[in-house]
Amino acid sequence: MTEFVTVRSLKTNSEMKLIQGLETIIWGVQPVPVHQTFTSTKNGGIMLGAFINNEIVGFSYGFPGVVNGKLHLCSHMLGIHPDYQKRGIGKALKDEQLVQAKELGYDLIRWTFDPLESLNAYLNISKLYGICDTYVENCYGDMEDGLNHGLPSDRFNIDWWITSERVEEKWNPDISTYECPFQIHYSEQGNPELTVVEIPTNLEGIEVPVPHDFQFIKKNEPELALDWRMKTREIFQTLFSAGYCVVNVNLSADRVHYYQLVKKETIPL
To answer: Bridge-partner residues for 90, per DSSP?
Structure first.
């Protein structure tokens, strides 16, 4: 990232309107109403904007949530203008979100993302040290935006324990070898295909492959994209039920990347 990026809190109605413009550009959807985002920031929510040369290029938005009586920050949206993606701006926004969440007294930030979007996974798991042991089928129902159209909106729930040893000390498991029991072949168009023979639940560390570019597969081989969705859904649900948790993403040089999982009981939270 060569440009100097400034990340700061957004508080006013006019600043919330800046976010609405970005939402439309990034996702092509109806933006969240200003009265909702403005009210949230007055009541424990956090809205951050990323600026280059005083032009807004990205934002993150979170509001308070409660699960089983425990308060957390629900990090609902993070978006970067298409002209400025893959430049580290998302990481900068999350780093500032962590700082401000701690100041407000949060120790947990939660959000969702598509488990087949491997680069998002790398940010959320490997760079931010979040963890995941929850898989939600068709979380948002049928979605019509360009990124999500045509497939069940399955999601990982990420837990970012921002005061934990895992996050503060950048803890990763001390495992020399992760085993991958799944096979990869390639379609006539050169896209990776997943073969599942069995799903073992007795390994110390296990790797699960996902495509390098899932959006490309969705566009060019939609039936293969659905096959990836359904097979990985079964894999992750089985492993999570057996007590595994995602702790890392291994970016390989091939056309697949690999989630790495260990038993959750081994993670310092």
So the answer is: none
pTM (predicted TM-score)? 0.92
Tell me the pLDDT tens digit for each residue of 214-254.
999 999 999 999 999 999 999 999 999 999 999 999 998 78
How far is residue 192's CA from residue 209's CA, in Å, rounded to a whole number? 10
Residues 175-195 as b or e (16 or more Cβ within 10 Å = b): beebebebeeeeeeeebbbbe
pLDDT at 29 over 90: no
Whether 138 contacts 115, CB under 8 Å? no
State the Cα–Cα distance between residues 260 and 245, nearest whole angstrom.
Answer: 8
How many CB atoms sit inside 10 A of residue 27's CB? 16
CA distances from 36 to 30, 63, 235 (A): 13, 10, 38
